[in-house]
Structure formats: structure tokens, C-alpha cells
């Protein structure tokens, strides 16, 4: 244990002398060569107390612990959701403010395995561990984890006083945790998973050959050849699927690229001019439509001119339905009816990347109520 502690301490100091960036604490080491075990925690804790017991004298606290095992008959590593019965001082008026009675607890801790615990076997199988009944703590690693879980406030205070995970001072950390009576803990540098820790432990601490599993068995020549054939078949299938995907997607990509290019040209045609409300409504309908639709919509004999690579398809129309009733005796206008409406519109078309002429802008001058006669152009022939 002492040699393991020193080795892990060296690992903790590998980043910065005297200080270390840590993500796990080593709680306990046990066993002789060939059957050694190490236990770590990331101090992930949770309150699992049932709602109906929130005002009682016992709190169920959970802490995440990782086990690493040398014995080939044991799993490679495990993730343990350990739950403990922790005595608390009940405060009926404020159950959220209750706190654990702390290291003064004399009664033996009771624990159980919580849900979502699992072990990772030598054969790379993820095996769920079923929840267990409540029982007394006999494993010293579990007892240390329980003392941390039942004294979360003291643990967090010790962590903060030691500089936190990013600048851990091991001496100050252990001084802060001393009242728990769990012995020395080691902060392990820059570790985010038990897999990272395991690689270091096997190579530099246990200095032993890691037991092999089914995944480590050497394949026969026939198996290697079979795997290569399967990989070649998969590669050929993927290549076929890639060709099919390209054949399906490329026209869509090309059409989208052409559309974006046309919209860029249309913006240049509009030249940043202020578009009226009616023009904006018509552009929402007509922008990008084929020139032939504009010609069909404007009816017979629209005026078509071309300049600077643009075509202007113009149409003018007007109607005067105004009338008045005039007094013959006095000449006074007694009543009026009807209205004067006019519409002068120019569809501006330009060729897209395929050479097709399409509507890029619409310019309108209208008279009359609600946009006058130009309102009738808000629909295309296709509509």
C-alpha cells in the first residue's frame, strides 16, 4: 500500500511540482501481487433519500467509486454506485438545510450497491451489477467512500481549501480530510476515466502483464483472411453506396449552387434600391420564375427591350371608371363614383448559369386604391 501510494503520488505531481491538476482521488489499495486492487473516486455524489424519508434522521447518500483489479479471475474494472445510510440532524422546518452529523458518527455504516453499477470484464463485456440489500460495511475501500459521502460538506470544504481539482495541494487536502479518519488519499493528475488510470497502474505501478481476454486472443491465419474478405466486402459496399449517394445528391447540390448564384445576380440587378411594399410582395411570388411565365402573365404584346445583359418586359394598363352626377341648374356635383387606376410594370430578367432567362427584379408604378391594377399580377399563370 505504501509503495502504491508513493507511485500514485508521483503520478499526481507529474504535471506541476508541488501542485497537480487532478480529476480523481485514490481512496484505497489492497492485496498482494497477483491479486491487487485499487479504488478511486471522482467525488460525484447524490442524495438518494426517498421523499417520504426527507424529514427523518437518516439520509441516503451515493458516491461513484471505480475499482481496478489485477486478478485475472476478477473484472478488468468496475463502476460502483455505492449508497450509504448517513445519520443527519433533522430540521423539520427546512429539510433542505439538514446536514450529516459528520465524523462523530459512531455506529457502523451500512451500504448497498445502487442502480447503474457495472463491471467491465477482460473480454470487453459490460456487465450490469444488480442492486444489493443493505448490509454492514466490511470492505475498507467502501468504508472510506462512505465517510466521504456522509460528510460531503467537509469533503467539499477540504477540496476548496486545497485548491480544487485544477490546482490540488495534496498536503492541505489530507489535512482537511483528517477528521474523517480515512488515511491518506492521493490526487491523480489529469485523469478523466478509470481506463486512463488503469493504463498507468499496469505499466508503472503493478509493473505486470495485464491478463488477456477473448479480445486479446491471437487470430488464426484463416480468421485473419476471413476478416480481410469481410472488410473488403464492406469497403466495396461503402464505395457503391457512396457512388449512389453522389448520384442522388449531386443534382440537388448543383441546383442549389445554381440557385444561390442566381440570387447573387438578382441582388446586383436590384442594386440596393428601395423596394415598395407591392414590389416586395410580387418579388416573393415572381423571383426566379422563368421569363416565359412573365410573358404569359402580361398577355398580348408586352414591350420587350434588352440592355446590359438584362431584358425588360414592360406592360402598361389603365382604366377610368369615374363618373359624376351634376345639377343642371347649379352645376354643382351632386355625387361621384368609380376610380382611376393605372399600372406600369417592368419585369427584369437575366440568364442563370444554364442560360435560362429568369425574373430578377420587378419595378412598378401604380395608381389607384390598394395598388391599383398591378395587384392582379400577384399570381403567376401556374397559380
Identify low-pLDDT runs.
12-21
Query: What sequence of helices (H) and strands (E) makes up the elements?
Result: HEEEEEEEEEHHHEHHHHEEEEEE
Distance between the termini: 84 Å
Largest pleated sheet: 10 strands, antiparallel
| Contiguous helical run count | 8
Number of strands: 16
Strand content: 25-35%
The proportion of residues forming helix, as a percent range, comes to: 25-40%
Number of domains: 2
Structural class: alpha+beta
- Estimate the mean pLDDT confidence: 83
Overall form: elongated
Radius of gyration: 41 Å
Protein model, in words:
The structure is a single chain. With 383 residues, the protein is an alpha+beta fold. It has 8 helices and 16 strands. Strands 1, 2, 3, 4, 5, 6, 7, 8, 9 and 10 form a 10-stranded antiparallel sheet that branches.
